[in-house]
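Recap from last week: sequence in, structure out.
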Amino acid sequence: MKRHFFPLLSYLRYWLVKEDQYAIQSPFVFDVYNGLLGHIQQSKEKDLDIEEFRKKLLLCDEICEIEDFGAGSIKLRKSKRKISSVTKYSTSPRKFSQLYQFFCLKTPANVVFELGTCVGVNTRYLSKSTKGNLYTFEGSQALWQKSQENPKPENTHFVLGDLKNSLPYLLEKNQTVDFALLDANHTYQATFDYFELLLPKIRETSIIAIADIHWSKEMNRAWEKIKAHPEVVISLDFYECGILFFDKTLTKSHYILHY
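Predicted structure tokens:
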């Protein structure tokens, strides 16, 4: 019961303090925020093929054995789960898939990491904004296989295995990471560990997105610690996710924004 209550309380706090574009004092954040709203408006008729893919998954009654390496699911407790249920409860709504796509486009997007493929919906949105290589990591073999079904996105490397091993290995192979989405193990320690592993590869033009920052007390605690990190310059809280900037020419600030 407590796991269900915390996100509701967090959303109430978010709703009370969130700001719109008229309250933003930073010219940089003002431009980014309005750019995001413009991207959403202009993307209404775009990427509809991905939404067709989502619809197919929402109708899929296939039952898979899901290996869960993280904090588990609030809605789905059993290891055997319908693909339709996984898609309904464990994938981002379209507007947040588009949000991740937008912030990926704000970077050079030559090397993009997605931690937590799930069924591959966000993967497909990110692949369309990736100019180089997208590496998407998944621990469950059943989801790893499902995420690669047609239409399989281009320029995408589907990596299977425990992130404790696969993430350090691929970080060694890449000089920089331009954009990273952390949506895997929803525990405090794992989320902070992923952030610290990524940091040496982060540049001033890089952006990190962290999903489900208010999903639990642990995730909220991880978000609070990460946004206070000296390497983080600007943090944006959209309730369902947080966005981090690292450009040292900007003034350190934190915004809670309506979306």
